[in-house]
Amino acid sequence: MITFEFSKTAEGKDTFTFRLDRNRLRTSGFKALSEFLHKLHVYKSIGDFESAEKFFNHYSEVDSEMLKVREIVIANKKPRRLELQPNLQMSYSLEIEYKDYPDSFAGVI
Q1: Euclidean distance between CA atoms 96 and 69, whole angstroms
Q2: Any domain includes 15
Q3: Most buried by CB count within 10 Å: which residue of 17, 62, 68, 107?
Q4: pLDDT per residue as tens digits for the range 38-67
C-alpha cells in the first residue's frame, strides 16, 4: 500500500513524500500485478469490449489525492536539460583541439 504525506518546504512550496512497503512488493505486489495482467489479457483475447471498458474506466479514475500530487509535480517541474556533446577536432597540423559549445539552444544546433 502506498501512502502520501503532504507538507511544505522552507520556501513555502507544497511537496509530498510517498511511502511504500518494499517487503510486500515480492509477495502481494507480484500477485496483484499478475492478476491485473491476466484480466487484461483475457479481455483482449476474447474481445469483450464492455467488460474491458468498465475495467479500464475503474483503473483510470483520478481521485483528489492524485490530482494534488499532479499539481505539486507540475509546480516543481524543472526545465529540460540541454544535452551537449563536445567534439575533438584535428587540424591539418595534426593538433587535437577540444571544441565546447555554449549551454543554449544555439549551442545545440
Answers
A1: 50
A2: yes
A3: 68
A4: 999 999 999 999 999 999 999 999 999 999
Q: Is residue 99 part of a domain?
A: no
pTM over the 0.85 mark: no
Q: Strand 2-8 relative to strand 14-20: parallel, antiparallel, unpaired? A: antiparallel
Q: What is the residue-wise DSSP string for 81-94?
A: PP----EEEE-TTS
Kind of pairing between the strands at 96-99 and 87-90: antiparallel
Indicate whether 35 belongs to any domain: yes
- Report how many domains make up the chain: 1
Residue 97 in domain: no
Range of the domain at 14: 2-79
Using the structure block, give the residue that is written with the C-alpha cell 522552507.
10
